[in-house]
Amino acid sequence: MTMTMKSNGPVKLSTGVERIAVIGGGSWGTALAGRLAANGNDTLLWAYEPELVAEINSSHTNSAYLPGINLHPALVCTGDLAEAVRGRGIVLLVTPVQVMRGVLKQLAPYIGADTIIANASKGIELETLQTVSQICGELLGEAALDRYVALSGPTFAREVAQELPSLIVAASRNPGAAERVQGAFSCPCLRVYTNSDVVGVELGGAVKNVIAIAAGICDGLGFGHNARAALITRGLAEMNRLGQAMGAQAATFAGLAGMGDLVLTCTGDLSRNRTVGFKLGQGMKLADILAEMRMVAEGVKSSESVYQLACRLGVEMPIVENTYHILHEDKPARQAVMELMTRDLKAEG
Q: 105 catalytic, yes or no?
């Protein structure tokens, strides 16, 4: 299965201040909405929980997902999806990928014909094995992909909200769409690069979460820095193999949306996916780990969708395969590591 994207036309140029809807009031959506508002954009955040909408509008905080962070006072929140997107020049999707289809179906009637659709969520839909761009193309039409932008990179929501220096990639087959998003987000604490490889950027964001769970398992088992470094490196090779099979550019995986995001998610203490793996390595059951978490660890579902996609395409991804078996078939973590270490010897590649 090869995914190719060619530009079909221009995107409406920005006239200055952007009117932006951010769909999803979790930590990442709130952090991005706060950044957009601080940059002077007319920003409206949609959140599902009524109590969260009320808190953001009254206190300018999101204590459930970003405790201790003061949001920009210009940021407004709503619980009405139609109100959130109507008349907006950019709609930024930041809901979990597994519910993205349902949210997009509700949004579709209210999205303008020239509205840019940006996505900052990372994963592959389990039911269909589609990326978010493919879901958008199916629900909004092929022409909508000329206005689609994938956002990814090595960024923890809390650090972006704290205005710590961060870098991300805005990928689109249409340079004008990527530049609109680049302009809306860019500021001294957030540098945005454009990219044309939507497929690679989306796959990097999905696969790195699975590898991060595997890295956490290694750390939880106490396997040390050598094992973690090797796992990250071989995980990158698996990411690249899947990307090549789907028409992505190899250079993407050496950049921010590939290696950059992979290193961050596999090593950072703020990584939800690494945390899941670490607790698994320490002997906790997956159901108990997830019951403790309010925020979604996308890698749990993505382990299954990425594994199935690799099987469909005939791509060898042993780390992803074993992570899937640990998460969904109760394979002992130590057994999985032993099988990885004793595979047939071969040249690096």
A: no
